[in-house]
């Protein structure tokens, strides 16, 4: 268990559009670029083994990155015969980028702040207003429209946070909408945002009409 005092002031960041990591969730990554192989090697040498996932966006800030990302701890990794790595990041806490740090690493590093995201290090969240039956009916329509299938028994049995966060990470939404899901202050807000995005997609909304 990582505590707030263990979180670093600077963090290696991995800009990857559409790759959403949320606290207490897991994100599989396929790492093969030399700079990110170096990032992984350096992260594994640190006590926290943390990597910051952040989405690129040229208009979001002077750094070309959204200012809010989520740090994940490397909890699993395996190397392929040709030197690539299959990695699993376990979400620890969101962070806010203060400024990019110059240095000699081939990957990007940023000074970050963790304040405002204290609940990320706390207990699993619940959603007291979650009408699961109505939500799953909506999800079923969405998946059918996308010609996708899923394990409905697992979805029905999943805890609120696991269900909402897993769908937020897995469903294919534009980068701006993924960021809105990341920045939701609590599970209820994220579930409401996710519901709105699914309803919007079912109405045939275009990618230009994303959430602001």
UniProtKB/TrEMBL annotation:
Pfam families recorded: LON_substr_bdg
Ranges where the Lon N-terminal domain occurs: 11-202
Entry superkingdom: Bacteria
InterPro entries xref list: Lon_prtase_N, Lon_prtase_N_sf, PUA-like_sf
SUPFAM superfamilies: PUA domain-like
Name of protein: Lon N-terminal domain-containing protein
Organism: Epibacterium ulvae
Biological classification of the source: Bacteria, Pseudomonadati, Pseudomonadota, Alphaproteobacteria, Rhodobacterales
